[in-house]
């Protein structure tokens, strides 16, 4: 069994730091929530690298919100529910589509410079959206612009203290209440940080897979530590693979935004044939899971390793203006977006599930909140609609702060110890273990899954479990332990769900089965695995 704590400690022997609100992570969720909370609270933001290391930094497409006169919350709601394949929470989606515009106003007030056209906010369209409702910045650098603006606010805010290069190892809970966390400083010293509210904003799990659009820091730390603490984890079988990621010798797996297809790019196989008409009536603008599987099918059918993304029929001026970051990045590797077909293949991108929350972002553990990709609010269902992730972070960040304002100070915490007397470090270097785990997940729990592959993957993961008996002391060891927790949960849930829905595809159960499987799978360390019904959509 996965242990409650990753490290031995005695709280009474640890130095203590007290604050009002602990924010773990520094993407859009962490930055935005910290700024809002700092208006009335002292905030401690803890990030294992720096403010600029997060998935938000790499978000290109934009942020979805109802701004245009010809758009409506009802239309945004409908698009989100369709993409979510029957597993969205209608209440959570209603919150998103109605409160998203207010969140955008907050971002603008905090200094985010979205692109304008004729003095109005510029809007574009992306896959599975029925309207142009995606705000963007510097063409295709929306995430970087939001991080720039919010980081500037955080750095000059006297109510926010930032701890860079600090690793949060585990949450401290008692009687289903979160009191804070055990944090390791850069010098290896452990401290107990306590606050009346703890907010997980630690991002996703892209590093479960060898090929991902996510940075190295996306190791599922928040989901793993919440699971060990006894929180409910929901919908982790649904991992979205972005269809169009640069696949070129010597180049990293660089995201080619969905907005490129939104502006007219088409997909061609290795023989130059446009193929999406064989898979979906929306062609290149079909939901991401459909486009990704179509690409994999074409790759297998033509015995290739990639397909082409072609926007050469659009004006060079528009392409360079709209996608300057993508254009320049490809140019660095000898590929001209305006004249060349760009080789692409799917890569791990986003987890729809995570730590289950209510509509105020609070988890099943009181005073523990989750915001952004680490959370399972119910907005995304089985497949996230493009550009809804940044919206979700600001909408639920606002709600979390409102909920924190109602909290009373914490009562005294009883003494807690974790003493398993671990003595020996891991036998095998964790960098080798991490690569092995990524290969297991890619082979058995990626685009196409089956009972045989998932069972084999689960057995291989269980062989790594002795790591939890070792004395862990370095960041990469904690990260691998967290990846192992998340890989195990994802594989267990994927094996249980005997149907294909959204981003989860079972070759042995290729059809969607609403009669048996229109429900959530919830994993809890103490209570085991349970199923949760879905409200009518």
Q: In terms of structural class, how would the helical and strand content be classed? A: alpha/beta
What is the CATH homologous superfamily assignment of the largest domain? FAD/NAD(P)-binding domain
Rg, nearest Å? 22 Å
Helix-residue proportion: 25-40%
Topology:
Layout: E1 9-10, E2 16-18, E3 21-24, H1 28-37, E4 43-46, E5 63-64, H2 73-83, H3 90-109, E6 116-117, E7 120-121, E8 123-124, E9 134-135, H4 142-155, E10 160-163, E11 167-174, E12 177-184, E13 190-194, E14 197-200, H5 221-229, E15 233-234, E16 239-246, H6 258-262, E17 266-268, H7 288-301, E18 307-310, H8 316-322, H9 324-331, E19 342-351, E20 354-356, E21 368-370, E22 375-376, H10 388-404, E23 417-418, H11 430-444, H12 451-462, H13 475-496, H14 514-517, E24 519-524, E25 528-533
Parallel strand pairs: 2-13, 3-4, 3-14, 4-10, 14-21, 20-22
Antiparallel strand pairs: 1-23, 5-9, 6-7, 8-9, 11-12, 12-13, 15-20, 15-24, 16-19, 17-18, 18-19, 24-25
Helix pairs in contact: 1-4, 1-10, 2-3, 3-10, 5-13, 11-12, 11-13, 12-13
Question: Can you describe this structure?
Answer:
Keywords: FAD, Flavoprotein, Oxidoreductase, Pyridine nucleotide biosynthesis. It catalyses: L-aspartate + O2 = iminosuccinate + H2O2. It comes from Ferviditalea candida. The protein is of the alpha/beta class and about 525 residues long. The chain folds into 3 domains: about 280 residues, FAD/NAD(P)-binding domain (3-Layer(bba) Sandwich), CATH 3.50.50; about 100 residues, Succinate dehydrogenase/fumarate reductase flavoprotein, catalytic domain (Flavocytochrome C3, Chain A, domain 1), CATH 3.90.700; about 100 residues, Methane Monooxygenase Hydroxylase, Chain G, domain 1. About 30% of the residues lie in helices and about 20% in strands. Strands 10-4-3-14-21 form a 5-stranded parallel β-sheet, covered by helices on one side. The mean pLDDT is about 95.
């Amino acid at each position: 069994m996965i242990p409650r704590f990753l490290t031995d400690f005695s709280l009474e022997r640890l130095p203590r730091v007290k604050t009002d609100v602990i924010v773990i992570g520094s993407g859009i969720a962490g930055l935005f929530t910290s700024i809002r909370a700092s208006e009335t609270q002292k905030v401690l933001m803890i990030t294992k690298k720096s403010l600029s290391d997060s998935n938000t930094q790499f978000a290109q497409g934009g942020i979805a919100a109802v701004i245009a006169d010809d758009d409506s919350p009802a239309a945004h709601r409908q698009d989100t529910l369709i993409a979510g394949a029957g597993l969205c929470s209608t209440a959570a989606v209603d919150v998103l589509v109605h409160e998203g515009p207010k969140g955008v106003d907050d971002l603008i007030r905090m200094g985010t410079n979205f692109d304008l056209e004729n003095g109005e906010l510029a809007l574009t369209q992306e896959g599975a959206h029925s309207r142009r409702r995606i705000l963007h910045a510097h063409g295709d650098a929306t995430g970087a612009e939001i991080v720039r603006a919010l980081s500037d606010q955080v750095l000059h805010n006297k109510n926010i203290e930032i701890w860079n290069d600090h690793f949060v190892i585990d949450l401290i809970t008692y009687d289903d209440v979160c009191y804070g966390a055990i944090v390791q400083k850069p010098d290896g010293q452990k401290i107990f940080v306590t606050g009346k509210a703890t907010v997980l904003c630690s991002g996703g799990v892209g590093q479960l897979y060898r090929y991902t659009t996510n940075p190295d820091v996306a190791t599922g730390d928040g989901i793993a530590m919440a699971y060990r603490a006894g929180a409910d984890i929901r919908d982790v079988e649904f991992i979205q693979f972005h269809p169009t990621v640069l696949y070129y010798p010597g180049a990293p797996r660089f995201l080619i935004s969905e907005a490129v297809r939104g502006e007219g790019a088409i997909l061609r196989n290795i023989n130059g044939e446009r193929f999406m008409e064989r898979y979906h009536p929306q062609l290149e603008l079909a939901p991401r899971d459909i486009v990704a599987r179509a690409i994999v099918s074409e790759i297998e059918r033509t015995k290739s390793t990639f397909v082409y993304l072609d926007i050469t029929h659009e004006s060079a001026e528009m392409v360079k203006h709209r996608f300057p970051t993508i254009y320049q990045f490809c140019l660095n590797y000898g590929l001209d977006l305006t004249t060349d077909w760009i080789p692409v293949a799917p890569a791990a991108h986003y987890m729809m599930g995570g730590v289950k929350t209510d509509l105020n972002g609070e988890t099943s553990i009181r005073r523990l909140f989750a915001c952004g990709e680490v959370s399972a609010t119910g907005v995304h269902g089985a497949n996230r609609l493009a550009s809804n992730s940044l919206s979700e972070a600001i909408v639920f960040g606002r709600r979390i702060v409102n909920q924190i304002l109602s909290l009373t100070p914490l009562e005294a915490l009883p003494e807690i110890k974790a003493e398993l007397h671990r003595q020996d470090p891991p036998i095998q270097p964790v960098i080798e273990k991490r690569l092995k785990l990524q290969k297991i997940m890619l082979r058995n729990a990626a685009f196409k899954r089956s009972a045989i592959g998932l069972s084999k993957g689960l057995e291989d993961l269980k062989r790594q479990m002795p790591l939890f008996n070792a004395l862990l002391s370095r960041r990469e060891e904690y990260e691998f332990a967290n990846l192992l927790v998340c890989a195990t949960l994802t594989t267990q849930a994927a094996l249980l769900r005997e149907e294909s829905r959204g981003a989860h595809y079972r070759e042995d159960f290729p059809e969607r089965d609403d009669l048996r499987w229109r429900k959530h799978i919830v994993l809890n360390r103490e209570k085991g695995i349970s199923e949760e019904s879905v409200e009518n959509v």
